Every structure is written in structure tokens, then in C-alpha cells.
Amino acid sequence: MLTKKILISALSALSLLVVSNVSFALSAEEQKGLDISLEAKKRDLGWQDSTADMLMLLRNKQGQESIREIKMKSLEVNNDGDKSLTIFNKPRDVKGTAFLSFSHPVEADEQWLFLPALKRVKRISSRNKSGPFMGSEFAFEDLSSFEVEKYTYKFLAEEELNGLKTFKVEQYPADENSGYTRRIVWIDTQEYLVHKIDFYDRKDSLLKTLSFKGYKQYLAKHWRADTQEMINHQNGKSTELKWSNYAFKTGLSDGDFNRNSLKRAR
Amino acid sequence: MPLSLSKPLNKSFVKLLSNSVKLSVIIIAVCVSLTLSKPVLANETASDIEFEVSGNVAIEQRYFFKDALYSEQLSHSQTSFSVEPEFYWQWNDGSDSIIFTPFYRVDSHDDQRTHGDIRELAYVHASDDWELRVGIRKEFWGVTEFQHLVDVINQTDGVEDFDGEDKLGQQMINLSLVNDWGIVDVFLLPGFRERTYAGEEGRLRGPLVVDENNVSYESSAGQQHLDFALRWAHSVGDFDLGAYWFHGTNREAYLSPSPQEPQSNIVSSSLQQYYAQMDQLGVDVQATLGEWLWKFESIYRSTSLEDFWATQGGFEYSFIGVFDSTLDLGLLMEHSWDSRGEVALGAQGSLLQNDLFIGARLAFNDMQSSEILMGLGSDLDHNAFSFLIEASRRFGDNFIASFDVRLLQSNEPNDLLYTLSNDDHAQLSLAWYF
């Protein structure tokens, strides 16, 4: 009986050690990298919900352009990933198509697609992180909400980027389905906003660079970039994202993110 | 040509018109709903009405490789033109909306395929945890790909395409209630739509033409029978579940050769349709486990003529980024089973009593959304198979070109596929979206 008790307490002490080990094991650079992202996430908390319009300009090597017009609705969920509804308006053949996602920091996201021609709601696999979104240079994972748990971190240096003082941090995706081995992210030391990301593919060669431009502050708190430009160094294609009509705390609720709202999304 | 087209056009318009008369009940209901929502409209200053038009116009060319099996049928080439605009109004920030989607197709040969339909004419009011939808609508249920077994609300627009995925608009009053334990939908379906079948000149039909004027019903209310359906659907973790009960007119007609007229010396040349009453229970389940999608559908149907079970089940597996590229490859396999077993041609039953389907879907994930789908269906009880390829690609910003090939083969003279084995065809279509 006594030995059993000792064993249990020894085991629990051990398990406690294992759990706390995670933070213990972090080097100073890893801890600093994590702290920067925790701070960035913390500063943006409390946006509750948001709506915005997104224009995607796809350009190939020859300079040919193609347009995607998309509306986004998002709901902040405390202690879990966000919920989002993505509604397609252009190209015209996919008009009315809508995408509902419940993201989770660690477990698989839950995703549904509504196909207007058949009026069909389809649950889809969320394993496709690395695939291109709508034929663009953005992968699905590049557009999903940022959760601290999705990466491990390593602070590299303080660096000046376009006259801004920034932290240069390396981020390693926790998800084995990610298309990247690592990302290098430049976050400014003033507002903790991401200004540039370099993406390294599975062979660890530089694949893409994403630049953020035209940050604007909403509700005196939440910063959002007007323009994001993704350049693919390997295929010469690029995609520009232009955001407009940002609105926060519009009163969206769980009821705006279910099967029914997916079917009538406009 | 314009002369030969004018007759079916008129006929279809009359059909369309009589159909809309039958819908008067619905329209009154829509008006009542609109009036109800009006005070809200007047109170809110920000409730501007937004209006939107979109839709598509398409031209389609079919080519049948072999000569027709029956003398009245078109020989090789069939051209058609279709238009489907969508008019949409919303107000109260999208809480109230009206959608109107008429559809019309003109076919170069098949009178029956030259037809129109109101795909949608409905008013929807959305609240936080309930929605009311009144009018003509389309409602899809199910999870599988090769057969839509549990999908029962809308009648199949059989002349549109071989796959049965095109549906006729259905008049309905639908109340949808959102609960923590799932979404419950109640449907009242006043008025029944008869299935559309290929006409005399049309291909992809059996030896006898289905007579659109020789239709009878089990219910004394006939086409006016009020059908009812109750459905529950919910997502629990990796599982998406649905279950329903449907009570009303069977969407599938029992077809039998028309009795010969006394003075006539022709052997029966057409099939008459008989729509029985049915009770149907259905379930659909999808488990989304990583790259695997496991799918299962089952129905139990009870009519005064027969009771039976049927299932459709299988999986879809996705390879993401095959060959170190941005291409996705999906592999599909499904099996169909029906408790009625093998049936002779003309008898009641399902073609898909013990059939295996395999398929591959290749998505290029390029700017043009290029996609290829291949499927092979095989009857495990006797030697019959069907094969299809569907490829599509966007051109410019607003055009979609699709190319389909369908091959049908059977060695069993009792099989419907046997009567269609001269109907192998390729189809090219170009659609402009606006």
C-alpha cells in the first residue's frame, strides 16, 4: 500500500517534471522567440469579431493577372483557434462558394465547403495545409489564423528592416503536414507587427517571401496591413492581397458560423 | 430549325406556367412573410436593399460514337444551349433575402430536353438560431460521390445529364432550428414534380419512351399531396451525422408499358409512370480522419408495393502535393448495395444492387482551376461497366470549358446499361459566367 503510494507520488512528480521540462528545456533564444510571439498575440487579443474584403491579384511569370474576390468573417474564440467564414465572389464560376473553418491550435481544424451548384455542404480534410489557395502563391496555412502553439521558436537577432527596428525570429511548424521546414519572421520591436516572412520549403531552400505594407490601426488597438505581397522565388509567380472594409466588433456570434450560415453566406 | 423548336418551346412554357399557378400557395406565403418582416424594415434605417444579378450561359455539344439503337433517336450529334441567371435581393444586413433562379435549355433534337424550370424562387429569413425558408428551393443531403442515395427532397431533372445530379426546384416551407445538439429541419412540401425523361429523339434512354402525359398517383391528392420531412444533422468531432424521415410521394416512378389502345395496331410504345406513396428513413455519416474520408449512406424505403434497404459506402483518400508538385490526387472507392438484388429490365429495383466504383480526382491547383475526374463502375453480379472522364479548366476570368467522356457496356440483355451501350459519348461544353 505504502509502496504503491510512493510509486504514485514518484510518478506524478516525474510527469510534472516532464510537463515543466518543456519550458525548462528552452534555451534563452527559444524562450525569447516564444515570448515575442506571445506578446504579439496578447496585444491583438479582444477583437471579438471582424469582417473584411480581400482582393487577390495572381500574377504569373509572363505578367498575366487573374483576380479573386473574397469576403472574410472571423470570430475570436477564447482558449481555442478562431472560427472563420470565407465567401467567394470572383472568379464568377465559384461565386457563392463558401468555406467554414473552426481552427484549433493543436488538433486538426474542422472545415466545411459549400458548393452552390449542388447546394451541397461537404466536410473536407484539413490536412491540406501546404496546397495553394485558389491557385495563388498563398498556401492554406499562410492564411489560417496565427496561434502561438503552431510553432516552436528561436530568436536570431535584432535587425533593421526598411528603417524599422525588428526582431528576427525563426519559427518551426509543429504540424508535420506543413509545407515548410521553417519560416524567418521580422517583427517590429515597437508594435510587435509582422513585416516580412521568408518561407523555406521541405528541402530547406528559400521558397517564398511575404511582405506586409500599409498597417492601419483599428479601434485604437488592432493593427492590420492593407497589402500583403507574396513572391515565389522558385516559380517566379506572385500574389498580392489587398484588404479593404475592415470592421471589428460587428456583433457576429457562433450562429454566424454554422452549416446554415455557410449555405446562405454572401 | 426555328420552326421545329417553337413547338416544344411553347409546350414547356405552358408547363412552366401551369407549374407557377400551382405555386400560388407558396407565393402567398412568401408575401405574408414579406409583410411580416416589413415593420422591421421600416424601423431600421440601415436596411438598404441590395440587389445582385449573376449566372451563366452555356453551349454544349454531344457526340455519340455509335449509330442509334432505335430509329427515332438522333444519330450522332446533339447541340444544346442553356441559360441560368440568378437574381438576388437582401436586406436587414442579409437576414432577409429573396432568390430567383430560372433555368431554360434549348436542345437541337430532343423535345423533352428543351425545357425550363424555376430552380429557385424563395424567401429566406435568418435569425440567430432559426431560419424560415419559403418557396421553390433545392436541398441536398448526403456524403457519397457515386450515388446520392439519401438525397430525396428534389426531383431529378433526368434529361439534363446522365449522372442525375441536376434537380428540379421543389416547393417548400422549411423551418430550420439550430440547437447545441444539431440542426433540425422541418419540411412541408406542397406539390410534387414529375421526373423528366429523354424524349423519342433523345439518346440515353431504353427502348420505350416514358410518356409524360400518362402519369398516375397512389394518393388521391395526386400531384397535390402534401409531403413531409424531418431531418437532424450534427457534427461531433471528426463525425458528420444526418438522419431523416420522409413521408410522401416517391420521387422514383414505377414505370410499366402503357396498355395498348384497342384500335391501335402498334405494340406498346411507351411507359406509363406511377408514383406511389412512401415512408423513407435515411442516415448519412462521414468520418473525416486525416487524409481519409469515410462515407456511408443508407435508406429504408417502404411503399405499398415493396419494402427494401439500400446502402452506399466507401472512402476517399487524398494525396496532397503528389510528385513533389502542387497537384492533389484523391482516390475514391464506393460500393452500392440494394436488398432487392438483381432485377430484370423493366422490373422494379435498383441498377446499383451490388456495384463497385473506383475513381481518381486530380486537382492541379493552378490559376485556371484545372481538374480531371475519372470513374469506373462495375456490376459485381454480371458483366457490366461504366466509365467516365470529366475534365474542366477556366479560360480567362469568366469562361469554363468542360470535356466529358462516358462509356457504357453490358453483356446482360436484361440490364438497362445494355440498352444504352450504343450511347457512348463525348461532351464538350463552354460556359460563360457573369
UniProtKB/TrEMBL annotation, chain A:
Pfam families attached to this UniProt entry:
LolA_like (PF17131)
- Give residue ranges for domain Uncharacterized protein TP-0789: 81-264
> Could you confirm whether the keyword Signal appears in this record?
yes
UniProt keywords (A-Z) are: Signal
Tell me the leader sequence span. Answer: 1-25
UniProt-recorded name of the protein: Uncharacterized protein TP-0789 domain-containing protein
Q: Which species does this protein come from?
A: Colwellia psychrerythraea (Vibrio psychroerythus)
Automatic annotation (TrEMBL), chain B:
Q: What is the protein's name according to its record? A: Uncharacterized protein
